[in-house]
Amino acid sequence: MSVREHAGADPAPEVVVTTSARRPGRENRQQLSNFLWKYSVPILFLVILIGASLLRPETFATYTNITAVLSIQALVLIIALAGMLEMLTGEFDLSLANNTALVAALTIGLQVKQDLSWPLAIGLALLASIAVGALNAFLVVVMKVSSFVATLGTYTLLSGVWIWYLGNQAIVPEEPLPTGFTNLGRHTILGLTVPFWVAIGLAIVIFAVLKWLPLGRRIHAVGANRRAAELAGVRPRHIVAGTLVVAALIAGIAGVLLAAQYGGASPGAGSALIFPAFAGVFLGATTIDPGRFNVLGTVLAVYTLAFMVAGLQQLGGIWSEAWVTPTFNGLTVIVAVSLSAWAFSFREKRAGKDSLARLSTEGEDER
Amino acid sequence: MTSDPAIDARDVVRVYGATTALAGADFSVRRGEIHGLLGENGAGKSTLVRILSGIEARDRGQVRILGTDLPRHTSPRDVMDAGAAFIHQDLGLVEDMSVAENIALGTTYVTTRRPISYAQVRRQAEDALRELGVENPDVDVMVGRLPLASRTLVAIARALAGRARVLVLDEPTAAMQGGEVDTLFRHLRALADAGVACVLISHRMDEIMRLCDRVTVFRNGADVGTREMGRTDRAELVSLIIGTPEAGAPPPETVPADTRSAEPVLTLRGLSGDGVGPIDLDIRPGEVTVITGLADSGHLAVPSLVLGLEPIAGGRMTLSGRPFAPRGISDCRAAGIGYVPPDRLADGVATGLTIMENLYLNPARPWWKPASIARARRQCAEDLKRFRVHPPEPMRSIATLSGGNQQKVLLGRALVDDPRVFICCEPTAGIDVGAKRQIHGLLRSVCRSTGMAVVLVTSDFEEAADVGDRAYVLNRGRLVAQLSKHELSTAAVTAKSFG
Ligand SMILES: Nc1ncnc2c1ncn2[C@@H]1O[C@H](COP(=O)(O)OP(=O)(O)OP(=O)(O)O)[C@@H](O)[C@H]1O
Ligand SMILES: [Mg+2]
Predict the structure, then answer these.
(1) pLDDT of residue B168
(2) Is A136 domain-assigned?
(3) Which of A354, B54, B261, B477 could form a disulfide with B79 if both were Cys (CB 3.0 to 4.6 A apart)?
(4) Do residues B314 and B271 make contact, with C-beta atoms less than 8 angstroms apart?
């Protein structure tokens, strides 16, 4: 016998629910504006695609251009997904993209300098990324260092490691690397490179885990109130340590794909991916499931930013100068996040106004 | 003008989105009186307090405090300057600051232009706490490490240190015990005699009846009556609160507890640690076992030991006859023990998540087993109705529920697992009379019909006597009495716990 069957034994109390007026016109308007706020980023995405296509039909609106942007930005998306996963548990990881850079350097270096076969090189490089994740987890979970400080440490440490390993020089292989390896970065399926499909695959897996698995509920619980989660039987330390390691591994996968894409290594290549990735995570939290880090929002946000920058660069002139990309990434995040905060209070106020109006008419009815 | 009322609020309206929290409430308090504010969970009491204190703007209506008209968008600072101090339901303390700093925050600390004298800050805090009857106040300890009752005292000390002429307390006694409540009430009486107007919000009728000069009852966001205490009685107040005449005595028990036949599921033998013990306890299925005592008697430490939250110094436990030594809550849960922590805000509610996510915070399935969202949502709507959560909307943010309704979600969280042993700490702190009776009924019915062993850890002696089949009373960390069903009464528990 279950509790549920017996909990309902006593009669239901009188329930008074006050909801906003159910007038069809008003409701439709409200639904429309809810829709607009929720889908602000996808709408922006479409606006940019259409606008840029109209302005530069011969360069922007081409199959090659679109697939190129989707493919090139896949690495940003992978890192963004890793960062989002950690932020859901309330931790922040600065070391992600440096992990990517280290793995890229190792993947090439182990093949060229140590003459290892490429699968072995990839395996060892990924082990290194897991080790970095484990170090982060040790510092955060066991030593109880704040994740921001701990990963600032590993971030700096990692750049030391690759400078030591590469001797601060780029590696340019004398003979071409095996095609089996370079295909990981360059081979295309339906016009899109392997990294794109890896990114989409990861996004689907993470989305499914967060939405349908108990593990996803536990990750959300740990992020929302760690103590409450613990008292409900979750092991927050396991969850946090697990996400830190998994995120590091994901960043490592991005490193392997980066190495395969370029077929060479240079110190720090890949470490700059952290900025557009985090911009995507924060912008993504304003859409689809506003106020919460979410997979779909992250995917859309990363590509919205990417296409915006690509479109600007094709406008030519001043728009293609080097300062434009970071400036626009930064501005978009600032504007988007402020807009969504404003949108919430605005929506709240208007719903309130509706209820107030209804209250007044009711009051008059009584009199 | 001394003839002005201390608080005069007229036709106050406040809506949150689609919810009307206050629908034209009037509330007036005279100088020098203690005024009770009563009402069900979600009646709008805390909302009124937030509006009076300037934390939130009202949508309509006038508010005058001590003759000062407060504009619609006023600030907490202005209200403070007008002479009013507030203790909110969530206390509003800074957990990472010491007691002294917290008390100083409400007074000189932030406004002085001279360098801060920490010695003075500490002295002031010590004085304020001593005045409240705390014997050796440690003002350097972080507020976050204090038990809930002590935090309430800190919040009250802070309000009193500001020398306010109007003092509003939103459920200050929800986490307190007899002795502390008495001390607080002595203070409030002294303040009232000195001309300070006090407003007391509480769900404990006996407290209100004992202390207040007048009471106002709120229902569904509006005032439904103000009464002089001498000209009313408990029955009238309860019927004002719930909107219908009181339903009389609690429902008779359908199945009598057959206590002798049942073997204990959980036994404690010589258990000690965290300042209590050694303790011998038997928890039997189909019974409500009460563990109770005064504030610092240590009854709240017992579940912490049982659940492995605090290290055990000695003794042992058995669960269904086998040795039991959990290393944490997850072990307990696997063994079929459900737990509701005493501190709702810090340890229970995951603000930022929805009601549904809070109810199923940690699904009992293995981590890899997927669930259908649509089915979960239907199930949730059903569970919410059964646990009397209002409004029963799964996708609503839990932060928008009133305190009592949040508590019901937490009880539900543990009960949806169908535990064998259900340990709930202070389950009705801050819950209105109607909901309290529902929760008591719920506890009794699950334990009679499913054979669940319910352990009720409470500081509310009335609750202990009403619901318990057997009670263990602690005093200064020691077990001083075991009362069986026919010995169990409020008077007996009170006598034993002071003994
Ligand atoms: N920020 C908010 N957003 C939406 N609804 C809210 C918000 N705050 C309160 N409410 C709603 O307003 C109503 C009144 O809540 P309030 O906290 O004032 O009740 P209360 O009388 O203090 O109850 P309790 O005795 O449980 O503390 C409730 O229905 C609550 O759900
Ligand atoms: Mg309240």
Answers:
(1) 93
(2) yes
(3) B54
(4) yes
Extents of the domains making up chain B? 7-242, 257-497
How does residue B239 score in pLDDT terms, banded at 50, 70 and 90?
confident
CATH architecture designation of domain B257-497: 3-Layer(aba) Sandwich (3.40)
Which of B12, B16, B384, B409 most suits a substitution to test ligand 1, by most atoms within 8 Å of the C-beta? B16
Chain A's closest residue to B331, CA to CA, is A233
> Among B396, B404, B407, B415, which residue's Cα sits nearest to residue B356?
B396
Domain-embedded: residue A270: yes
Q: Tell me, in angstroms, the distance from the centre of ligand 2 to residue B44's CA.
A: 7
Residues of B in contact with A292 (CB under 8 A): 352
On whether any CB of chain B is under 8 Å from the CB of A4, the answer is: yes
Q: Could you tell me if A32 lies within 8 Å of chain B, comparing CB atoms?
A: no
Kindly state the percentage of chain A with pLDDT values over 90. Answer: 47
| Residue-range definition of the domain harbouring residue A255 | 34-349
Residues of B in contact with A3 (CB under 8 A): 415-416, 418, 446, 450, 452
Candidates B420, B444, B442, B417; CA nearest to B431 is B442
- Candidates B244, B361, B445; nearest CB to A217: B361
CATH number, domain containing residue A203:
1.10.3470
What's residue B259's pLDDT?
47
Q: What CA–CA distances, in Å, run from A161 to A102, A133, A264, B207?
A: 8, 15, 18, 67
Whole-number Cα distances in Å, B74 to A319, B5, B55, B78, B79: 47, 19, 8, 7, 7
* Interchain proximity B446–A6, CB inside 8 Å: yes
Distance, CA of A139 to CA of B373 (rounded, Å): 36
Q: Supply the pLDDT for residue A245.
A: 98
B368: which chain A residues are within 8 Å (Cβ-Cβ)?
213-215
ipTM over 0.90: no
CB-based contacts of B415-418 (< 8 A; 24+ apart in sequence): B415/A3, B415/A7, B415/B338, B415/B387, B415/B446, B416/A3, B416/A4, B416/B359, B416/B360, B416/B383, B417/B333, B417/B338, B417/B364, B418/A2, B418/A3, B418/B450, B418/B452
Whether A210 maps to a domain, the answer reads: yes
Most confident range (mean pLDDT) of A22-26, A206-210, B487-491 is: A206-210
**pLDDT value, residue A198:** 97
- pLDDT above 60 (res A350): yes
Residue B74 scores a pLDDT above 90: no
Predicted confidence (pLDDT) at residue A357 exceeds the cutoff of 90: no
Cβ B268 vs Cβ B315: under 8 Å = yes
Sign of CA dihedral B434, B435, B436, B437: positive
- Which of the four pLDDT bands, split at 50, 70 and 90, describes residue A345? low
Helix axes of A179-186 and A236-262: crossing angle, nearest 10 degrees: 110
Q: Of all residues in chain B, what percent carry a pLDDT higher than 90?
A: 35
Lowest-confidence range among A50-64, A170-184, B102-116, B289-303?
B102-116
Q: Please, are residues B51 and B11 in contact by the beta-carbon 8 Å criterion?
A: no
A35-78 pLDDT tens trace: 777 888 888 899 989 998 898 888 888 888 899 999 999 999 99
CATH superfamily of this structure's domain B7-242: P-loop containing nucleotide triphosphate hydrolases (3.40.50.300)
Asked, colleague to colleague, whether B7-242 and B257-497 share their fold, the answer is: yes
The residues, any chain, with a CB within 8 Å of residue A367's CB and separated by 6 or more, are: none
For residue A8, pLDDT over 50 is answered with no
Count of the separate structural domains present in chain A: 1
Neighbours of B308 (CB within 10 A): 18
Owner of token pair 């987890």: A137
| Residue A240 resides in a domain | yes
| Residue B26: strand, helix, or coil | strand
